[in-house]
Amino acid sequence: MQPIASATTEEQVARALATCQARIAALSVGGKVPAPPPAKNYGTEPEFYFVWPKGVFFYADSEGVLNAASATCRGDVATGLITELSLNGQDVTDAPRREDW
Description:
- By secondary structure, this protein is of the alpha+beta class.
- It has one domain.
- It contains one helix and four strands, in the order αββββ.
- The chain has one helix at 9-25, and strands at 47-60, 66-76, 82-87, 90-91.
- The chain has a four-stranded antiparallel sheet, covered by helices on one side.
- Strand 2 and strand 3 form a beta hairpin.
- The longest helix is centred in the N-terminal third of the chain and has 17 residues, at 9-25.
């Protein structure tokens, strides 16, 4: 991906956050769990790093049971590319999206 020249860093971080939220929501079975709430960016340019402490949001496991969850999402601000995604301490960067199932 190429950086969007007209986008400010703040806009790029906002887009990255939305991408992370959607990616985390896509991991939930059944697709009925909303995306996690907005999170603070702990990254420093050129990286974004969002953290959701356990219990801030819930996800549905493979049996459809809702569980309190934690997550982190790290990537490149300019491209919005996610390079690291974890859910409850497990690397799920390459996990299939719900729409891929």
